[in-house]
From TrEMBL:
Residue ranges of the region described as Disordered: 315-340
Subcellular locations according to the entry: Membrane
Cellular component aspect of the GO annotation: membrane
G-protein coupled receptors family 1 profile domain residues: 38-287
Basic residues compositional bias, start-end: 326-340
InterPro entries noted in UniProt: GPCR_Rhodpsn (IPR000276), GPCR_Rhodpsn_7TM (IPR017452), HCARs (IPR051893)
Keywords on record: G-protein coupled receptor, Membrane, Receptor, Transducer, Transmembrane, Transmembrane helix
Transmembrane regions listed in the UniProt entry: 23-48, 60-80, 100-123, 143-160, 187-205, 226-253
Protein name: G-protein coupled receptors family 1 profile domain-containing protein
Topology versus the membrane: Multi-pass membrane protein
Superkingdom in the source lineage: Eukaryota
Length: 340
């Protein structure tokens, strides 16, 4: 009986379809190679150029978002190494638990700060008069520290028993304590994605409706703002919802003891988890480089040659008195859009 239990596909971490997992590994290596330099370059600007701790609320949350993504990216080469060697995780217990802790902590932090940034934008655009909430958000360093602190106890269940290989939940031989631990782990996994998703959808819909009703201001900037908040929701949906649905299907197959279907679901779930790491590459582009000021700072710091032609073009035309008056008149109406 013991041999049969050990041979069950959900009780080991062997990658049965090795070519597929080698492909997954190559995708993670590509994500790491592209995303790490981009995130580190953005992190450098936040620390040494913008001095984020002295900047506005949004910059502090963005810094923590990029920091979480960098810490998550560090885990990808290790995970890719195991995939290349035909294992879904490390065979060493300590390494496996450390990897799970880092992956879930920093992935949860990335989602949490993404949600907080969306809520901040929601109040800036839809409810600009809510002074009480604005005062609370000004304490963004405290909120950031609190988010990291709250994520620690939520991540601990991933270290108590192997989660990545889906070994335990739904098995008859589990004890009551193991069932409670596994259930808590699954609840954390689903809630940290589904709750932020619904919050993000609500904030996005309200922001888009509010921006579409604006009649004053540059229409190009308004369209850009609508595109930005919509793209954030789409990126979240593309990166995180597929792996969540795949895990739901996997649990159903395991509880019903559909072994062949579970084998396929496991491979699909691992692949969609690899897809979710793409968020680390997209975050700096959507949140940071979409800002005109930040993009200009980025290009000035790293690619000054690209700005030379734009600078020459900008210096050539002269603004007339009427244009200057219009520009001053619209500055106040643009301020809300620029915060997005």
């Amino acid at each position: 009986m013991q041999i049969m239990e050990d041979d069950h596909p959900s009780n080991n971490c062997t990658a049965e379809n090795l070519p597929l997992y080698k492909f997954y590994a190559s995708v993670m290596i590509m994500e790491f190679t592209l995303a790490l330099p981009l995130n580190l370059s953005v992190l450098y600007l936040f620390i040494f150029k913008l001095k984020f701790w002295k900047s506005n609320t949004n910059n502090i949350f963005l810094f923590n978002l990029v920091l979480a993504d960098v810490l998550l990216l560090i885990c990808l080469p290790v995970k890719a190494y195991h995939f290349l060697n035909g294992n879904r995780r490390s065979t060493e217990g300590g390494t496996c638990k450390a990897m799970l802790f880092m992956l879930f902590l920093n992935r949860g932090a990335s989602i949490a700060f993404l949600t907080v940034i969306s809520v901040d934008r929601y109040f800036n655009v839809v409810h600009p008069g809510k002074k009480n909430f604005a005062k609370a958000l000004k304490k963004s360093p405290h909120i950031s520290f609190l988010i990291w602190l709250l994520l620690l106890p939520l991540t601990i269940p991933t270290m108590l028993k192997s989660f990545e290989c889906c070994n335990s939940y739904g098995r008859e031989e589990d004890t009551l304590v193991e069932d409670v631990t596994d259930t808590l782990r699954e609840v954390v996994f689903f809630t940290q994605i589904l709750i932020p998703f619904f919050v993000l959808v609500y904030c996005t819909v309200r922001i888009v409706n509010r921006l579409k009703k604006k009649t004053v201001g540059d229409s190009t900037k308004l369209r850009r703002a609508v595109f930005l908040v919509t793209s954030v929701m789409l990126v979240f949906s593309f990166c995180f919802l597929p792996c969540t649905i795949a895990r739901m299907v996997l649990l159903i197959f395991r509880i019903k003891d559909l072994q062949n279907a579970e084998n396929i679901a496991v491979q699909l779930y691992d692949g969609l988890m690899v897809l979710s790491y793409m968020d680390c590459l997209v975050d700096p582009i959507v949140y940071c480089l979409s800002s005109t000021k930040f993009k200009s700072l980025y290009l000035t710091t790293y690619c000054p040659s690209l700005l030379s032609k734009d600078a020459e073009t900008a210096e050539s035309p002269n603004l007339t008195g009427n244009n200057l008056n219009r520009k001053c008149k619209n500055n106040h109406s643009h301020s809300r859009v620029q915060q997005i």
